[in-house]
Design goal:
By secondary structure, this protein is an alpha+beta fold. It has one domain. Helix content is 44%, strand content 36%. The chain contains one helix and three strands; from the N terminus they run βββα. Strands 1-2-3 form a three-stranded antiparallel sheet. Strand 1 and strand 2 form a beta hairpin. The chain is elongated and about 50 Å long.
């Protein structure tokens, strides 16, 4: 699976990091935002961890349903 990470500084001086994948079967985009690059990176990492936790919950639910 290919994941792209784009780093941008917005017009107001804040930072936005975007992790995305657009492949058949894998389509997502996560954002990390902050007042500086360090904050944006940390926010993106937190959002990735949150996504992982949610996916783990889905896996657990599907095991119970099967």
């Amino acid at each position: 699976m290919d994941v792209n990470i784009e780093k941008h500084q917005t017009a107001d001086g804040n930072y936005e990091y975007r992790a995305s994948c657009d492949q058949p079967g894998y389509r997502f985009m996560l954002l990390g935002k902050g007042k500086n690059a360090t904050e944006a990176d940390e926010n993106l990492r937190q959002n990735l961890e949150e996504m992982k936790n949610r996916l783990d919950e889905i896996i657990d639910i599907s095991k119970v349903s099967a």
